Fold this protein.
Amino acid sequence: MAITMRAIQPDMTILDVVSRYRQAEAVFAKYDEKAGVCLCCEALFDPLHQIAERYGLDLEKLLADLNTVANSDSS
Amino acid sequence: MEKELDCRGLACPAPVLQTKQLIEKERPGLIKVTVDNEASKQNVSRFLESQNFQIAVEQDGAVFHVIGKSDQKGVAPDAFKAQEPDMEKKKIVVMIATDRMGFGDDELGLKLMLNFIKTLKEMGDELWRLIFVNNGVKLTIDGSQVLAELKELEEGGLLILVCGTCLDHFDLLDRKQVGETTNMLDVVTAMQLADKVINI
């Protein structure tokens, strides 16, 4: 059975993510409206799990979206 | 070695990413990043601080010049001093972890804490960061008896940091009226860079 390692983990900050995967910026922009703030402006240094909790976002969905971008970026 | 980055017209996270890239590639002793929005100013400053740069911000209308200095050899100290004469001042962090001062009588403790906040301005420019954690975050929300004083300090240039985890724990995220919601990395970085940390 193949084990898939998720590139994006909940304890990574937005800065960690966008500095490795620039296309992830578009994913965060997609979540701005739901969060009610510009996430890259207001929460750049915060871990994803904390951001999801603070702004009422679905962490698993966010991680899945980010990992899709990360995987396509590295393929 | 001095480096300049012109990030006008760029929104976050681009200014921080460009700054990060430049630092990782060249590690300049002195860096000046020009931005034209508040979020970029704050984020570039926070990033440079996390990289152990001393920060000064100059404002020119709607444009901000974030100047960072590191201890790297080869930088003439006077070059930075000329741009930021306040660098020699002490940096004092006050961390408030309660809404009462001392133990024994809560009513007296509240009075003392209110008086303490009102008197903080006597520290002048050396008061560098005011951090609220645990029950202390309740002093930053609506209804706080020291909100006006805290806003005055913030308007005077003091960076007030309010623990996001604590606000969330008490379900007070929407009620914060002053300061920036922060995380433990910022708290630890502020303590590391400060000349003195006062815990209340």
